[in-house]
Specification:
The complex is a heterodimer of chains A (about 180) and B (about 400). Chain A is about 25% helix and about 20% strand. Chain A is α/β, with parallel strands linked by helices and about 180 residues long. Chain B is built from 16 helices and 9 strands.
């Protein structure tokens, strides 16, 4: 399937969506979709048999600061059965950086979205487990943003060893499990 | 009979645990020996390489990416170089492509050997570990011969290779391949029909084909479920379509199937290495002929003014890369692997994101171990071949 046929098929699956072709230096088909239409487009890409992009290879973000709109979200999709690759991009404004989660379409997106939230501060609405992934949970700021300094000075912290009763520990574990099951 | 008190036990496995291949921590809830829930926690090895890369020049990134997935260093630098070369719009000569194929396949054998050794040791076959590391030592010697550095040679560069192959390299690789194949049969004698090993691995950590794809576990894990997806066949790069090799698959999807797939992959890699060796002339071109990217030979730097200026420019300013983005997938030892590279037209990368197969494998760990026995957790972690440097970056 050539890129035109792919976009036409996608347009057919999601009538009314604005799908914008973008040039790419690596000859991969690249499309832009708006934030509000992204969930419908992504669902169609995965579920339609003639598209069947069942494999989410990559989900990441790029901070274009100080340019606007500030963020670009990138989904790299592969249709293994049709030997097709597609890059879907979503532009997000810096002061309104949130988008619907894709983890219901691809379970692989769960941690990838957590990583993007952790390092860029982009919120994924409806994410099942919206916690930081790589940085400590009490970390401030989003390190991969371009206005985040490369070197930061933190005061060394001395903390008391964690003292906890058996009941408190069990309650914590139960709370953690509940938060993951929701 | 007195009442036996039962309770659900929470065990914190790791981050310092010899079988977690680094600093992976899993909070397990156990009912007796059965795993009720598992919550992998990562980030203990997060070094912010992606942020560091944004401060470096294009060529300086290579040592950094090699340290991400430290068991397949040259596979990382290959993926990065291919993406940047795609942005630059340059094509490396055929001899360089063949050398890169040879290096990538040796790296695959290297990585699989460490996997087999550690996995074998964890399920009780300690001698396999000793044997595998013995053969891996020879591969590290080849790296030392190539570049003077055993683990992270930084031999692949944007635009080609750092220098030409050393004298006697062909013979050294051939000697290794001749020695390696019978040794591989020796490992198989130790494990493939070993009753204890079969008991520990068959039917353990099963992943269905659809789940493997949905969780992004393409590579040896998906091939163990019967999916023949291999980037070398589906989206060929470096001229892999001209090589004669098979993509081994299994259907069971368990730990044992992953073992069989990786063993067969090593045999195929040996085949590819031999074909590549036949195509590579011992002496020849090793980089593109582009004075913006490739530094001039040292003897010209010492004798010609122009070459000195060129050398100075490349090592002080680097080269600029046209604005744009590229992602070239390759088949790494752990599956589809690649770097999403964004340039804004300057001499430093705007953003570099590594696709980390180990991160996705870690994510799917929960799916594979819940409902099984705690002893199987070790076997499953070994079978998905996670490298924590790749998970946390």
């Amino acid at each position: 399937m050539d890129p035109e046929a792919l976009v036409a098929s996608l347009q057919d699956a999601v009538p009314g969506a604005r799908i914008e072709r973008a040039p790419s230096l690596d000859r991969q088909t690249t499309i832009y979709v708006s934030r509000d239409e992204a969930p419908a487009v992504l669902r169609a890409l995965r579920t339609r048999p003639d598209l069947a992009f069942t494999f989410l290879a990559e989900l990441t973000a790029v901070d274009l600061w100080p340019r606007a709109p500030r963020f670009e979200l990138v989904y790299v999709l592969v249709a293994i059965a049709h030997r097709l690759r597609l890059r879907v991009k979503v532009r997000l404004r810096g002061d309104d950086a949130h988008v619907a989660t894709a983890s219901r379409e691809w379970p692989a997106a769960n941690w990838l979205e957590r990583e993007v939230w952790d390092l860029f501060g982009i919120v994924f609405d409806g994410h099942p487990d919206p916690r930081r992934l790589l940085m400590p949970e009490d970390w401030e700021g989003y390190p991969l943003r371009k206005d985040y300094p490369v070197q930061i000075q933190l005061k060394p912290r001395a903390e008391e060893a964690l003292q906890m009763t058996v009941e408190e520990f069990r309650a914590n574990v139960a709370k953690d499990r509940l938060s993951r099951e929701q | 009979m007195p009442d036996i008190k039962t309770e659900i036990m929470t065990v914190n496995m790791g981050p310092q645990h010899p079988s977690t291949h680094g600093v992976l921590r899993i909070v397990l809830e156990l009912d007796g020996e059965t795993v009720l829930s598992a919550a992998p926690t990562i980030g203990y090895l997060h070094t912010g390489i992606e942020k560091t890369i944004e401060q470096k020049k294009w060529q300086q990134v290579i040592p950094l990416v090699e340290r991400m997935d430290y068991l397949s260093a040259q596979s990382n630098s290959l993926a990065y170089c291919l993406s940047v070369e795609q942005l630059l719009g340059v094509e490396v000569p055929e001899r360089v492509r063949n050398i890169r194929v040879l290096i990538a396949e040796l790296q695959r054998i290297n990585s699989h050997l460490v996997w087999l050794g550690t996995h074998g040791m964890e399920v009780g076959a300690v001698s396999v570990m000793l044997y595998c590391f013995r053969e891996r030592e020879l591969l590290l010697n080849l790296n030392e011969m190539l570049a003077g550095f055993r683990m992270f040679p930084s031999y692949l560069r944007v635009g080609g290779l750092r220098e030409d192959l050393p004298r006697g390299f062909h013979d050294a690789v051939r000697a290794f391949l001749d020695r390696f194949l019978p040794k591989l049969d020796e490992y198989e004698d130790l494990l493939t029909k070993n009753a204890i090993y079969l008991k520990r691995t068959q039917g353990v950590g099963v992943m269905s084909r659809d789940d493997a794809v949905a969780y992004g576990l393409v590579g040896p894990i998906a091939r163990a479920t019967g999916l023949d997806y291999d980037v070398r066949k589906y989206f060929p790069y470096l001229g892999y379509e001209t090589y004669d090799f098979a993509v081994p698959t299994q259907t069971a999807g368990d730990v044992y199937a992953r073992y069989l797939v990786r063993i067969a992959e090593m045999k195929e890699s040996v085949k590819i290495c031999r074909q590549a060796l036949d195509r590579i002339a011992p002496v020849g071109v090793f980089a593109i002929d582009d004075p913006r990217i490739t530094p001039p030979p040292k003897d010209r730097v010492y004798t010609e003014m122009e070459a000195l200026i060129q050398h100075f420019l490349i090592y002080s300013q680097g080269f600029t890369v046209p604005a744009g983005e590229a992602y070239v997938p390759i088949e790494g030892p752990r599956g589809e692997h690649g770097f999403y590279v964004v340039s804004d037209g300057t001499n430093r990368p705007w953003r570099v994101k590594a696709r980390a197969p180990s991160l996705l494998a870690c994510q799917a760990l929960e799916k594979m171990i819940v409902g099984g026995l705690i002893a199987d957790v070790i076997a499953v972690i070994g079978s998905i071949d996670v490298v924590m440097g790749d998970v946390d970056r």
